[in-house]
Amino acid sequence: MSLTRRNILTGAAAAALASQLPLRVALAQGGDKVVRIAMPMDFTKVYTFVTAEYNQGQRDYITMMNQRGGIGGYTIAVDISDHANDQPRAIEAYERAKSQGAVLVDPLSTPVARALTPRALEDKINMVTAFSGRSDAADGTVFPYVFPLSPNYWTQAGLLIEYFKQQDGGSLDGKTICFVHIDTPFGKEPLPVLEALAAKEGFKLQAFPYTPPGNDQSAIWPQVRRARPDWTMFWGAGVGQTVALTEAARNGLDMGRVCSSVWLSESDMDVVGRDQTVGVLKFEPCVSGREPKVIQEILAEVVNAGKGAGPEDKVGTAYYNYGVMLAALMLEGVRRAAEIAPDGPVSGEWLNAGLNSITEFTAEGLIPPTTITPEDHQGGGMGRVARWNGEVFEPMTDWFSANQDVVWEEVRKYSSEFAKTGQ
Predict the structure, then answer these.
(1) What is the rounded CA–CA span in Å between residue 378 and residue 358?
(2) Which of 9, 22, 112, 190 could form a disulfide with 14 if both were Cys (CB 3.0 to 4.6 A apart)?
(3) Is the bond preceding residue 345 a cis peptide, omega within 30 degrees?
(4) How many Å apart are CA 41 and CA 58, to the nearest integer?
């Protein structure tokens, strides 16, 4: 059987596509109980820092579940392509996936997810927007086919502020929190919640935007130092994160009071220097490392069998485990859909019913208990704070959620505006 693709990929992306060939051939011979998932992602331009590892984790998990006989009698078919964070290419990939019967798409890009949202809603194709896209998509009543399936940026900011408060004896009144962020919609996303919490908790919020991609922040961090912050949050991705960490250390900030969003990984520590970053904090949506049962199973059944989708040394990294997390949630949606309607027919609506019935799912301890409902597509908003100890990210808290009243006030404000205007 031959496969043709209009996107020619290189490097990690080529490996990703190549790893799918045996799977897709087997699927073509396996009858019609197939659930098709499209993963058009940015392998080559902006989000290269995360895509390869994230997608590797997804594919290894899906390979394992297919080897076990699929989900509820259904085999999972995955189509991978490179949209290079380019909206026309992403739309082309989406339309191709739709024509091939995909019932779920995961673009892993905020601008692409925003561009695809009206199409996904109209076509009733489920779109995963984990750690990307619109924070107000948590509102399933307005975005019935958009699924963050993870704590959005507003939730992450709210949880980190609560952690700061706990560490400072239960009050942030009179404290100064600096927010260093890339000057893009993604970087500005937490500001509404941070401003609301500043008013509620009595702390002074100082924002310091930097020009994308963030490879020059030398003028920003001396200003942060002079502000004498009690806490500093930095909010970027890729090179912006490593430069921020380098400058924070150079300006003498206490790493134990410097904290990132979800986008911080072992690779970033390697770039800056593992010993230079000891103490830095991050929001963690799932367990890192190889200890979780599901990661051990992937190693035994997929990687050690020579069927892994990428470098073995990436298995268990933060971004790899994010990929496993999201693949597990997607396939739990398939399992629930198959329970509700064992004979299908497979469609966007069929999978939507399954995703909306995910209940207290933990992926064998990899993630906090997650429940998706028609109203809440975020899943409860639980996470934890982890600290870099020079070798690994170690948890500093149990799973918890915080400031969800403030978060959902913002969610409903912005989702109602989308319902009225489509913007």
Answers:
(1) 11
(2) 9
(3) yes
(4) 12
- Structure confidence at residue 31 as a pLDDT band (50, 70, 90): low
Q: List, for residues 167-203, the tens digit of each pLDDT value.
A: 999 999 999 999 999 998 899 999 999 999 999 999 9
Which tokens is 17 given?
A: 């596509």
Burial 264-281 (b: 16+ CB within 10 A, else e): bbbbbbebbeeeebbebb
- Would the pTM count as exceeding 0.90? yes
Angle at 236 between CA 382 and CA 44, to 5 degrees: 105
User: Does residue 151 have a cis bond before it (omega within 30 degrees)?
Assistant: no
Q: Judge whether residue 391 has pLDDT over 50.
A: yes
* 77-102 per-position pLDDT tens digit: 999 999 999 999 999 999 999 999 99
